[in-house]
Amino acid sequence: MTSVERRWVVPMPPPNVTGTLHLGHALTLSVQDALVRSARLDGTDVLYVPGTDHAGLGTYAAVRRDETFRPDLPVAERTRAWADHYRKVIVGQFHALGLDCDWDTELHTLSPAYRELVDGTFVRLAEAGLLHRSARVMPWCPSCRSTVPDVEHSVGTERVPLALLAVRPHGRPLVVELAAAEELWGAVALAVPEGHPAAGGTAVLPATGRELPVLAAATGAPRPVVPAHRQQDLELAEAHGLPWTGILDADGRSLVPDLPGLSRQELRRATVERFGLRTVTRQCAVERCGVCGSELMARLHHQWYLRLAPLMAPVRTALDNGDLVIRPSSVEREARHWLDSARDWCISRQIRWGQPIPAVVCGDCAYWTLPPAGSGSCPDCGGALRAETDVFDTWFNSAHWPIAVSGWPAATARSRYPAAVMTSGRDILFFWFIRLLAIGTFVTGSPPTRECWLHGLVVDEHGQKMSKSRGNGVTLDDALAEHGRDVLRAALLSACRDAEDIRIRQDIFTQQAVVRRRAADLAELVVRTPESASRPTAADELEHYARHAARSTRAAVRRHLRERHFDRAVEAVTAFGTRVLGRYATVRAKADGAGVTPQLLLDLAAVYEPFMPDTAAGLRKAAATRSAADWLPDEQLVAAVRAVLATVEEAERLRGVAGIPAGVPVTVESTDTAVARLLATRWFGHLSEVALVPGPPPDGAFAVRVPGAPGLRLWLPAALSAPVRDDVRRRLRKLARERRRLARRLDQVRHGLTSGVSRERLAGRLARAEEATHELRGVMAAVAGRPRPGGRGGRTGG
User: Around Cβ 293, how many Cβ atoms within 10 Å?
Assistant: First the structure.
């Protein structure tokens, strides 16, 4: 395998420099860092590239909203200062979260090399005939003073006053509802549905006496035809030769000669009064800017458009033949929808922050050319040519991110392209992933990543998306201060299940705090215990078991991360930390740290590394205080300890079920000589709070077999038989339901009635349920046939 094949590149989705990071960023970064750290543990040559996005319109709007930031500077310089400030803040937060990045490779979307790459793509797209500059009616934000395409709107319902326009085309009464009454000043006709009896007539506007033709059109309800507000109305007016004028300027102020300079709301009220309209209040859809929240208007303006449809075919082919993987499956389905329905992409914005589009344009028509050609007059209309002042949509700029990470077109790019995996939240599937796949494939000839994996969004415990306006948003700094980075990262990943939203509940942090504390306490115990006082002559049975469990957990974590099951990976560590390490650490603490080997500590560090790197570092530090000796876990010893621990867990469970009084001993009997020997070891007595005593069965007791530990039995007093029998019945009923459910699902899989479920995994779970049922029936037989008090007769569970 060559070094080119071994390179495993993970480009960090660059956060916007609009402000500080929040929990959504923390989730994405934790996902990536877990993959990176796990791969590095396995010896993979990983390149994890950090960086930030200038964020174009978002940053520009944020600066204009915050008048307290550097008010001494003009807007353009304030924006640059803002971006520089938050770029440093965000990189500091990367470090605070403990990311294992290659810091010398940090990128920014406005660096000179990056801008050169984007300009080069623009030229190539122009030469390929995939760009056009056209005048279209587009949504416009008067606050941001820029186009805001429909995919970046926020549309909600609000109670608004509707104006009612009453007219009588063909002598028939017709009422038109107007959510934006000011549109009447730009109306050139009324549109009615096809077949409407008013079509072909005229309507007289009240107060003004102006006549409007009534046109049949593809509309659901009668409405005014306003070419300045809707693209379809512009096309309808042009088809019928109807002249028109604008209503509002770029600031959203009135262009109506009789009412100049009024704000949109002032013009709306004045229109209702001038035309004598009635109003009613109703719930209506209102489109707002997704950046600043202002109500959008429409404006005819020359914009730059990229024909996306031709760029999607190669991406679809790569997805079909397996060169590209998009996961989870629900996200792949959505991705295919976007690939099949791509429309022209408006890639221009009218702000002074970002990367200018490298073209020369006519100020009067759609003509454009590439520099350095094109000075003087427009060859189409004679208008003056000028350098384009529009900037690229930030999504067009950031779509080059994985190409820039590779260093394209340098020769070294071959070892960095394509990326191994790119991850982020599913909300930017279209905004970023679909577009970067299209751009990357166009520029290089192949998709820029082998895999796209998108997770869900971080929401509060009620399922609401977190935001400052709702008062439920949590910043990364606040979360780190409350939980620490190890617990924060592990908690977020424990709830990261495919593309499902991640609900933030306190219990996920509490649980991971316990898991971290188990390992941290053990590391501290080893560090403060002198090696001379703790050095074992050889690893004991408990050490063999703990190390085997750690290595098995690491293998499970590796497998789950490879399958992108982050919740299962953390679940494996959680189970290990609570069930194995917790009991192990308790035993070692009671022995003042004796018996802990550096090999186990290093294996523990590998288990914790992907999710809790600080804890892993503490374990490695503790291992460095001990002299190492090569050894591997003994499978026979491991099996014997596992049987002993199963006995302990069953005894503790039965204490709760049967109400075994504290201090009352429970006899443990084993027919396995290896297990019987372990019952006499010095550490056995520290394993449980239940008083377990090895030996023969006492008089008048009944036996309970230990699940998963043949040859081991617990002898309980006869008085406890009734609650134990009730418990067994409950467990048998639960197992019966589980077996029926698994059998139905397995039957559905066999007959092709369901997919997405492993047949082998279902069959394995069913077999384990049947085995557990068999064991419990043996327990029931033993309880039912228990000896009479004072005797040794009757059946047992042995």
Answer: 13
β-bridge pairing 211-217 and 189-193: parallel
> Both tokens of residue 449?
């990543």
Residues 112-159 pLDDT 10s: 999 999 999 999 999 999 999 999 999 999 988 899 876 677 788 888
SS3 state of residue 31? helix
d(CA 339, CA 332): 10
Give the β-pairing of 666-670 and 45-49.
Answer: unpaired
| Residue indicated by tokens 């040859």 | 711
CB 390 within 8 Å of CB 348: yes
Rg of the chain on CA atoms, in Å = 35
DSSP secondary structure code for residue 453 in this structure: E
Q: 540 with 683: CB under 8 angstroms?
A: yes
For the chain, the straight-line distance linking the first and the last C-alpha, in angstroms and rounded, comes to: 56
| Structure-token match 């082919």, residue found | 317
Quickly state the pLDDT bin for 791 (edges 50, 70, 90). very low
Q: Are 211 and 187 in contact (CB under 8 A)?
A: no
Name the percent of the chain lying above pLDDT 70: 94
10 Å Cβ neighbour count for 148? 24
Residues 299 and 367: their CA atoms lie apart, in Å, by: 19
Q: What is the DSSP string of 91-116?
A: HHHHHHTT----GGG-EETTSHHHHH
Query: 445's torsion region: left (phi>0), alpha (psi -120 to 50) or beta?
Result: left
pTM of the model: 0.86
Nearest by Cα to 212 from 220, 229, 221, 200: 200
CA distance 10 to 418: 10
The DSSP bridge partners found for residue 392 are 348
Of 449, 396, 460, 452, the residue nearest 425 (C-alpha): 452
Dihedral sign from CA coordinates of 634, 635, 636, 638: positive
Of 407, 461, 626, which is closest to residue 529 (Cα–Cα)? 626
Among 3-12, 703-712, 719-728, whose mean pLDDT is lowest? 3-12
Q: 548, exposed or middle or buried, with CB in 10 Å at 0-12, 13-18, 19+?
A: buried
- Are 357 and 392 contacting, i.e. CB atoms less than 8 angstroms apart? yes
**Beta bridge partners of residue 226, listed in sequence order:** none
- Angle at Cα 127 formed by Cα 374 and Cα 440, nearest 5°? 130
Nearest Cα residue to 18 out of 452, 353, 401, 381: 353
The residue assigned the tokens 């079909």 is 320
How far from chain centre, in Å, is Cα 240? 50
Nearest to 175 by CA among 222, 113, 140: 222
* Tokens 């007289």, residue located: 204
Exposed e or buried b per residue across 431-442, where buried means at least 16 C-beta atoms within 10 angstroms of its C-beta: bbbbbbbbbbbb
8 Å CB contact between 736 and 773: yes
Residue 56 near residue 354 (C-beta atoms within 8 A): yes
- For 436, the 3-state DSSP assignment is helix
Of 692, 686, 632, 657, which is closest to residue 776 (Cα–Cα)?
657
Candidates 672, 734, 682; CA nearest to 706 is: 672
Residues 6+ apart with CB under 8 A from 26: 97, 476, 479, 488, 489, 492
Report phi then psi at 33, rounded to 5. Answer: -65, -35
Query: Which residues are CB-neighbours of 412 under 8 A, at least 6 positions away?
Result: none
User: Other C-beta atoms within 10 Å of 173: how many?
Assistant: 9
Q: Exposure pattern of 716-725 as b/e (b: 16+ CB <10 Å)?
A: bbbebbebbb
Backbone angles phi and psi of 432, in degrees to 5: -120, -55
